[in-house]
Amino acid sequence: MRGMGNMQGMMKKMQKMQKEMMEAQEALNAEQFIGAAGGGMVQVTVTGQREVVEVNLDASVVDPEDIEMLQDLIVVATNEALKKVDEKTNSTMGKFTQGLNLPF
């Protein structure tokens, strides 16, 4: 019967870890990340759920003769913001999955 006590203790630890993971994921999802390009003249804000929630453009980058430059700046700023989400996700959730080789 000794093994049952160990199993119960392990199950409690797993449930605690699962709860902590859910709380960490909820906090991450609520966080906002800003990517910038063009010296900050283009800013894109995304949530931890990787949803774009805001795009800010300085009037000086809106040139009807050079739409491609503006498009490129938006792409760069968006990718920077998404990279920040990935980095934060890896650092936050990685502590729960270290050594387990699990996707999150």
Notes on the protein architecture:
This is Nucleoid-associated protein LYSBPC_37070. Homodimer. Belongs to the YbaB/EbfC family. Binds to DNA and alters its conformation. May be involved in regulation of gene expression, nucleoid organization and DNA protection. It holds the Pfam family YbaB_DNA_bd. The chain has about 100 residues and is of the alpha+beta class. Helices cover about 60% and strands about 15% of the residues. The chain has two helices and three strands. It has helices at about 1-30, 65-95, and strands at about 30-35, 40-45, 50-55. It has a three-stranded antiparallel beta sheet. α1 packs antiparallel against α2. The longest helix has about 30 residues, at about 65-95. It is rod-shaped and about 75 Å long. The chain starts with a helix and ends in a 7-residue tail after the last helix. The mean pLDDT is about 90.
- Assembly annotation: single chain
Main beta-sheet annotation? 3 strands, antiparallel
Going across the major beta sheet, what is the strand order?
1-2-3
Counting DSSP E segments of at least 2 residues, the number of strands comes to 3
Query: Stretches where pLDDT falls below 50 for ≥5 residues?
Result: none
Q: Please give the share of residues in helix.
A: 55-70%
Measured distance between first and last alpha carbons: 35 Å
